Amino acid sequence: MKKGFLTIKKDVANETVIERSRFICTLKRVDGEDEAKAFVTFIKSTYPDANHNCYAYIADEGGFYVKFSDDGEPQGTAGLPMLETLKAMGLKKVAAVVTRYFGGIKLGTGGLARAYSDGVKQAVLKSGISECLYSVTLKTSVSYSLYPKILKILEKEQNVKKLEEYTADGVDVTITVPVERKEDLAVEIRDLSAGKSTLNEVEKGYFEY
Predict the structure, then answer these.
(1) Which domains does the chain carry?
(2) Higher pLDDT, 8 or 209
(3) 138, 144, 145, 148: CA torsion to nearest 10
């Protein structure tokens, strides 16, 4: 069964100043390596006069599409610390670019690594972290009298998304829950409705709760 993953809540930019050098970390949620590469290109075009635009990304939920770059900084002082920070925070489907405007004071290799790593960490904290779970979307139709009881079942679910549409005959309900909850939920609704309401699968995918 596919596992869930963590990602940033929203795209953000966060700036820190260390020894007069400006470090601007821009984070973006991405869906695949092409989107990650396009984001890096966009940031480089946004800050063409910067001394460095270092980056790191984990572009998929499985952690297979991974890349980083020091972009002219001493080897191992920028891209890799950024990547290790993303990994340490458990993030997937995210790209980070740290733009540096050199302030005239050298930080040393250790200072650089800390600056780039901390730049990513502070930006992630500013964005917040969301959990995306592999889920299934289901549809069912229930009578008006039965719907309040269905709502009580759904209220017990830890992760659930619900849409409802009222019709002349009752309520059409679209429910999204983690895949592992599908069978138990289907049994509860079937038993509650004496077999009159069943859950029909619409799609599967990752959903944020």
Answers:
(1) 6-127 (3.30.230.30), 131-208 (3.30.70.240)
(2) 8
(3) 60
| Two structure tokens written together for 33 | 């390596």
The predicted pLDDT at position 181 comes to: 94
Instruction: State how far the alpha carbon of 58 is from the alpha carbons of 7, 80, 96, 196, in Å.
Output: 10, 12, 9, 45
Residue with tokens 């995210």: 94
* pLDDT tens column, 55-92: 999 999 999 999 999 999 999 999 999 999 999 999 99
Angle at CA 68, nearest 5°, toward 42 and 124? 75
How far apart are alpha carbons 21 and 87 in whole angstroms? 26
What's the rounded Cα separation, in Å, for the pair 175 and 71?
46
Q: What is the pTM of this model?
A: 0.82
- What one-character DSSP code corresponds to residue 47? S
**Torsions phi, psi for 47 (to 5 deg):** -125, 65
- Residues 88-130: tens digit of each pLDDT: 999 999 999 999 999 999 999 999 999 999 999 999 999 999 9
The residue whose two tokens read 């709502």 is 151
Contacts of 189 (CB under 8 A, 6+ apart): 140, 142, 150, 153, 197, 198, 199
**Residue given tokens 């635009």 in the structure block:** 53
- Orientation of helix 182-192 relative to helix 147-155, angle to 10°: 150
